[in-house]
Amino acid sequence: MFEEIRHNKSRSWIIMSFFFLIILALGGVFGMAFGAPIFGLVLAGFIGFIYALVGYYSGDSMILSMSGAKPVTKTQFPFLVNTVEGLAVAAGLKNVPQVYVINDSALNAFATGRDPEHSSITVTTGLLEKMNRQELEGVVAHEMSHIQNYDIRMMMLAAVLAGVIVLISDFMFRSFIWGRRDDNERGSGGFIVLAILLAILAPIFAQLIKLAVSRGREYLADANGAALTRYPPGLAGALEKIKNDPDPLVDNANRATAHLFISNPFRKTTTNFASLFSTHPPIEERIKRLRAM
Fold first, then answer.
1. Distance (Å, rounded) from C-alpha 251 to C-alpha 68?
2. How many angstroms separate the Cα of 181 from the Cα of each of 172, 205, 213?
3. Burial level of 17, CB count in 10 A (0-12/13-18/19+)?
4. Which of 218, 212, 222, 216 has the alpha carbon at shortest distance from 292?
5. What is the per-residue burial (b if ≥16 Cβ within 10 Å, else e) of 248-284?
6. Do the beta carbons of residue 141 and residue 226 sit within 8 Å?
7. What is the model's pLDDT at position 164?
8. How far apart (Å, rounded) are the C-alpha atoms in residues 253 and 266?
């Protein structure tokens, strides 16, 4: 697990670099289509850097605000806060993550932040009502593992940069549809076609990368969480209840934040094509692995 954590940190930089390459490619091809490749590269790089910087320092605050999460105290939720404190010690964190609650009947939870020193764990009121102590500990341990393994930084920045790619692609596509048709101000027709194709395909690739990163890290967080509590059946039981939740929709969740939750906050899809765009690996497989530990 410690080796995997080290790999996670290195892979984070590799994947972030890949996102930036897509952003620069979009800007470069867009610039070439208009006869100004350097300007396109500089503009795309500047937009990507600013968005990444804002996302790094303010992304967690925006996510908590969008999700309707409210900070809570030990007086309000003593067992929840005590559990977070105890598992933070078990995980070797220097700072205890802040604790938030969403007033929602769905059974779900997520962690966010830029590093273990600036992190938080959020659970829904539905989760607090339906889980027993061991199951709640399992869920919190899963989210604590995302913090310990630096998954929170990776997933937050992946969401921000995927959003930048969508933004630049949309701008490119609209500029070709609604922009002026003066061929003297444009590059060759081949660059225009390439730019349009990139504008269409880049957001799809960015989304697939983001979701693949999220799915791969869920298995590690499950195993690491079970190791923290020394009781795999706790998290397995929690996932069973989440799987059978008749109303899994988290009201304030959206497509940008769905990959942060312990389980897909939207209605489940079962087709093979839909699974490519799933934010999480199959919950049945996650339960199976935990039962086998």
1. 9
2. 14, 29, 40
3. exposed
4. 222
5. bebeebeebbbbbbbbbbbeeeeeeeeeeebbbbebe
6. yes
7. 81
8. 8
Residue at token pair 């984070």: 12
Instruction: List the structure tokens of 102.
Output: 């969403």
| CA gap 15, 120 in Å, rounded | 23
Contacts of range 6-14, beta carbons closer than 8 Å, 24 or more positions apart: 8/149, 8/150, 8/151, 8/154, 8/217, 8/220, 9/150, 11/154, 12/150, 12/153, 12/154, 12/157
129 part of the active site = no
Find the catalytic residue in 85, 117, 137, 143: 143
Q: Which two tokens stand for residue 129?
A: 């009502």
pLDDT (tens, 9 = 90+) of the chain, 293 residues, equals 566 656 666 666 777 777 888 888 888 887 887 778 888 888 888 888 888 888 888 889 989 998 999 999 999 999 999 999 999 999 999 999 999 999 999 999 999 999 999 999 999 999 999 999 999 999 999 999 999 988 898 888 777 877 788 888 887 777 766 655 455 444 555 656 766 777 777 777 777 766 666 666 888 899 999 999 999 999 999 999 999 998 888 888 777 777 788 988 875 555 454 555 566 788 999 999 999 98
